Structures are given as C-alpha cells and as structure tokens.
Amino acid sequence: MAISLTFVATKTYNDSVLFYVFTKGKIDAYERRPTDAIKDTTVKVRLDDHTRKMLAYCVEAMNLSKSELIRLCIAKEYKELLRILSNEVYWV
C-alpha cells in the first residue's frame, strides 16, 4: 500500500519547527522539540539514486536531519497502521 505524503515546515517563535503532513486530504501538525530520549540503535538502509534524492530534498525542504525525517515517517506510518488495524473487522 503506497501512501503519498507532502510536508510543509515553518519555524515557530521558540525556534522549534512546526511542520504539517498532508496525506489523503488530511492534515496533521507536528512540532519537533529537543528530546532526552536515548537513540542508541543504528539502522542501515540501501537506497537507489532516486530515493536518495527524494530523501535529500525532504531533508533540505523541512530543515531536518535524515534521522529526524525517518523517525517522523516511521511514527506517521505506525499511527496510520494502528488506525487501519483498529477499524478492521475479523470474521470468525
């Protein structure tokens, strides 16, 4: 299942970044804040050139690190998956 995402980022008064994610006609707003959560797991990913360019474009446009952008996308997909699974009806 492919999901189309569009990101728009703006700076807030306290220098955190407020960004909006547009999916399927729905708008979600997130604010990136400093965190004390320890991030001690490294994941290595193989990308083709087109995907690498898309990642670089999103990172530049949103003023995020690659890690921040990837964590954001994982959280967004996880939230969407939970929503989909919670609405499923299981037939016995």
Note down, in words, how this protein is organized.
There is one protein chain. This protein has 92 residues and is of the alpha+beta class. 39% of the residues lie in helices and 22% in strands. It has 2 helices and 3 strands. The protein has helices at residues 49-62, 66-87; strands spanning 6-11, 17-23, 26-32. A 3-stranded antiparallel sheet has the order 1-2-3. Strand 1 and strand 2 form a beta hairpin. 1% of the residues are buried. The model has no long low-confidence stretch (mean pLDDT 76).
Summarize the structure in short.
By secondary structure, the chain is α+β, with helices and mostly antiparallel strands. The chain is built from two helices and three strands.
